[in-house]
Amino acid sequence: MKKNQPTEWPEIVLSSSVARLSQAVRRAIKSGKLRKIATRVYTSNFSDSPEEIIKRHRYFLLSKLFPNAVISYRSALVGGISSEGTVILTYKYTKSVELPGLCIRLVKGPGPDPEDTPFLEGLFIASQGRAFLENMQKSRQKTKEKKSLSLDEIEHRLDRLIRVIGIEEVNKIRDQARRVAERLHMLGEFSALDKMIGALMGTRAVDVLVTESGKARAKGAPFDAARIDLFASLSAYLIQAELPVLPSSTKTIQAKTTFAFFEAYFSNYIEGTEFAIEEAESIVFENKIFPDRPEDSHDILETYRIVSNDQFMHTVPRSDDELVSLLLERHAMLMQARADKLPGKFKNVVNRAGNTVFVKPEEVQGTLRKGYEFYQKLKPGFARAIFIKFLISEIHPFLDGNGRVARIFMNAELESCNLCRIIIPTVYREDYLLALRKLSRAYDPAPYTRMLLTALAFSHSIAFDNYSQALIQLRASNAFMEPSEGKLRFQ
């Protein structure tokens, strides 16, 4: 029989203290049916590398090589074996064991606790309460991957748990930790954990906290830490980016009026408020409210009233307080016909778009204020316009109207610097949404910036001094088409 042909042996075989089995393994090795790939570990697979074989069976190996071990410390909180191939087990003694592609760090400690979770036969995962207690222990080892998370990592994890599962569930983890601490003699670790959780919930002194997000939550202004990282990435990109300076092409009253009309029309159309262009003209220029669509009619009319107002469009936030107040003011105007959307008030429930879950209601103001810190570091003009538009879109602070408000703020930044404002035509909607998604999910600001640069160049190419001529140009550019019907063309 050839070595690569199937045998009666399984892919993974462990040596045994049973004489009969031990002899059978030795015969199989001699006859070429098994090969050794690690201490006490053999395989019938002669094709794949030892690393690949062990990776497929690593939890089985842990359960058999170290019976009644507990996946503990860092490993219990980060999901078992790390991406680097390291796992930490509480066991009968302390030792490091190396298998191909797998580093096992054994830490002497108590065996399975009644609240630990059975994982495989003979292998357990520490309960969350136990895992947090273990990670509160200081790690003196100088290895690349310490057995315990750092205090700021623990704090970030608890802060995230409070956001995701809520205070009540985190209190259950604390209660579990209290019970475990008494059984495993970890009362000192529990005291430190209890103070940290209490501080995050605002019931204990905050001097034990070490992270910005933790301190903000304790002060009643929690923010979405992951979003702050995203805003930091965009801000860093914009600081070094070479961005154009296109002066405003709407110097006359007629040009301003025409641009504001199309800005309001497209900004609503992209959100699903669809009117024929002639219907929109009668809403804006004749103040006509369609009786079968009064709320949609007001959406277009109120958007136009904001974007056609010179004072509104030259006003930009000069502080985080002003950012919050301007947002509430503009949203109140925009959504005044939709009482069910809480005009002028931040959302009271979590909102989402597809798989994207936006910032939680209780974190909206804190995230806006932290985001403002990055905004004010950018140069006035296009960089700030790009940033503040994404800041509002990504936070989604309202039940409805977020996209329109974000585009109003973007164009106010440009108008305040006498730069060309931006229209997102209907045909460009998919490009617009895909670029936003790319930045939100992949932290890639380049497609988003390129998309707005294209929209800026397109907006600058239209002559808005004459309404009829502007309409002809927009139609020739495919601006009114659905994305499936055509592509944006420059005249």
Q: What descriptors fit this protein?
A:
single chain; 491 residues; alpha+beta; Fic-like fold; six-stranded mixed sheet; 21 helices; 11 strands; elongated
Written account of the structure:
The protein is α+β, with helices and mostly antiparallel strands and 491 residues long. Among the domains are: 68 residues, no CATH class; 252 residues, Fido-like domain (Fic-like fold, Orthogonal Bundle). Helices cover 52% and strands 9% of the residues. The strands form three sheets. A six-stranded mixed beta sheet has the order 6-7-5-4-9-8. A three-stranded antiparallel beta sheet has the order 1-3-2, with helices on both faces. A hairpin with a 2-residue loop joins β10 and β11. It is elongated, with a radius of gyration of 31 Å. The N terminus is likely disordered.
Radius of gyration, taken over Cα atoms and rounded to an integer in Å: 31 Å
Alpha-carbon distance between the termini? 74 Å
Low-confidence stretches: 1-6
Count of helices? 21
List the helices and strands and how they pair.
Elements: E1 12-14, H1 19-30, E2 35-38, E3 41-43, H2 50-56, H3 58-65, E4 69-71, H4 73-78, E5 86-91, E6 95-99, E7 102-108, E8 117-120, E9 123-125, H5 128-135, H6 151-165, H7 167-184, H8 187-200, H9 212-218, H10 225-240, H11 253-269, H12 277-286, H13 294-307, H14 310-313, H15 320-334, E10 352-353, E11 356-357, H16 364-375, H17 382-395, H18 402-416, H19 429-442, H20 445-461, H21 467-476
Parallel strand pairs: 4-9, 5-7
Antiparallel strand pairs: 1-3, 2-3, 4-5, 6-7, 8-9, 10-11
